[in-house]
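Troubleshooting: if your tokenizer reports a length mismatch, compare your output against this known-good record of 471 residues.
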Amino acid sequence: MALVAGVDSSTQSCKVVVRDADTGAFVRSGKAGHPAGTEVDPAAWWDALLAAIQAAGGLDDVAAVSVAAQQHGMVVLDEDGRVIRPALLWNDTRSAQAAADLTNEVGAAEYARRAGLVPVASFTVTKLRWLRDAEPANATRVAAVALPHDWLSWRLRGYGPAGESELGPDLTALTTDRSDASGTGYFSAAHDEYDRELLVRGLGHDAVLPRVLGPGDTAGTTVALPGVPAGLIVGVGAGDNAGAAMGLGAAAGDVIVSIGTSGTVFAVTAVPSEDASGAVAGFADASGLHLPLIATLNAARILDSIAGLLGVDHNELGRLALEAEPGAQGLVLQPYFEGERTPNLPDATASLFGMTLASTTRSNLARAAIEGLLCGLADGLDAVRAQGVSVERILLIGGAAQNPAVQFIAAQVFDAPVAVPTPGEYVADGGAAQAAWSLTGTRPAWAVAVEAHPTPDFRPVIRAQYAAHRA
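Known-good structure output:
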């Protein structure tokens, strides 16, 4: 029985899952936390990865490993392989003006044609432009630009800062995959190549970029590390959303709605997308296809905020929400607590509309929180549909998807059948599937169980009210 490991290095933590390469059967897992904040020293991710590997019982009996990680994070390295400054994460919005400047210079339609997306504060290229403008001395030192999964895979293979790694700072050994490269803002998923002129517009000069590997490729092998034997195959890796799609085995007609720190709506398609409005990012998936995606900055933490305000936990928030009627008697929460990416409103704040003596109740506020969360994602579903995506089934995943009230109300907000897969670490599972692909030469077909099918009960009033107050 060959074993493989998948890694999910997310915003909040690092998870390692070990599975049987043939059947996908779960064997064991481990987890370690990441620091809070929108900029993080990548060394913290490395420490968490090694800790999560140890928590998973080590990888001595594992044949291959692959790393999926949060997209867009700006990891800038000098010529000695040292990290120049803490990485700006996807949810750091200080580069909003840089995004606007890039869009104005290139043009939204032209940018979408060249890179499959229009710059917003989340993307790597805007963070590089911010670095160029705000910290020019640091920008000048940049010899290579990597993403979180690129850098972690490089370190697993023994590369890193001079004097702190077995193989030293060979920047040309950096590798990535199409899915993660497609979220930078200087890579074309349609043509599978970097657009270096866009990179230079961001950073101000050219730099080493990770070599883009194909699905099922091998990045190299590990060196001996704590909990990691030498010689493990290192898979190509992926961005987190592409990892989740692979872990779920998403097929044509499936649209994934994920409710975690961020909210995402995405689907696997054969055709690249070019949305000049900027709503849909034309990412690549991890199988050689495409992954049109929208993302919201505000997702599960909406529920955290309102639950805290009401002095309840998430279960009680759900119970209160189900006491209220669909539409919450006109109470509408526009949940832009941390600004927003879709729509692109980085400086926005949350607003509560429709407050009357009758509507302003604990139950209505609880329902308005869940409806507001889901309506923002339903708007994203409409945008993905506008790119020609067929929607036959919505796969609802993420921590908040396990709340029965979220499931019930999702069936009232979305106009397509909703299925809730059994809870799992699907990003890490996607990494494990990649590892198995690298090991065997064939993409595995692991079964994914579905634990809930909420009865379809579409209520147009919910989205109509939300649309009336849309920014």
